[in-house]
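Dear Dr. H.,

I hope your travels went smoothly. While you were away I took the liberty of generating a structure for the chain from your last submission, since the lab meeting agenda had it listed for discussion. I wanted you to have the full record in hand beforehand rather than looking at slides cold. The sequence, exactly as received, is reproduced here:
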Amino acid sequence: MSKHQITTDRPTIVNTLTKLSPGAMVDIQLSANKQLRIKAKLVGYQEGAYFAFSLPQHIYAQQQDHMFEGKSCVIRMIVEGDAGLCVAFKTKLITINKKPQIMLFVEYPEQIEFIQLRHKSRINTHLPVVISEQQAASVSAEEASSNMLEGVVLDLSEGGCRIELAAPSQSLSMVFVQIILRFPLNPEKPIVLNGTIKSQQQTSDKLRVGIQFDANKQLKAVFNKLNMFNHPSLAA
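The corresponding predicted structure, in token form, is as follows:
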């Protein structure tokens, strides 16, 4: 797949958009000059018919003059997982449902534009992981261990990963993190990586975190040595 594509091929559109999950945050552009943009949450969709997004009441109150049936808009969203795409499409507002919450319904697109975000291919997996904030040398082992969080790696590449954690009371404040991975083929020799949190998506009981690894020349060699990309035990 090339990095940037525009397509009207219906199977490609459907296959791409079915990777979206309810609860995903989207960007809705309501004006041609890109200055009027709001955030909403994907509620669901009906193939070939509509997409539905929920909108906070205060956002609707501020922007309702720009929202009406037939209004043109641009939807942008991230498709997570092995796809790693930024998807955008032009559409029109079908209707606005005001009770019990603000819901925007837009037309299902006949054309989409997407950009591949990842330079490295990813595989789906379910590896155990421990994540903690990168610590200064002066920090004690007790202090470091108190900040560790356990989770699973949902997908993984040489350049980054997506981790799912039991949702804390709020989003993680840490940015620069250390990750400890244990592989089924060699659990006694974990891989320790440093990285940067690039995205967070929180639901009622889970927190998904996208992490970009720091440059590591040995990482590819280690993955190949463990046969990670070809081993069936890592498939979801």
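Two observations you may find useful: The two ends are 22 Å apart (CA to CA). Confidence is low (pLDDT under 50) at residues 137-141, 226-236.

With kind regards,
E. W.
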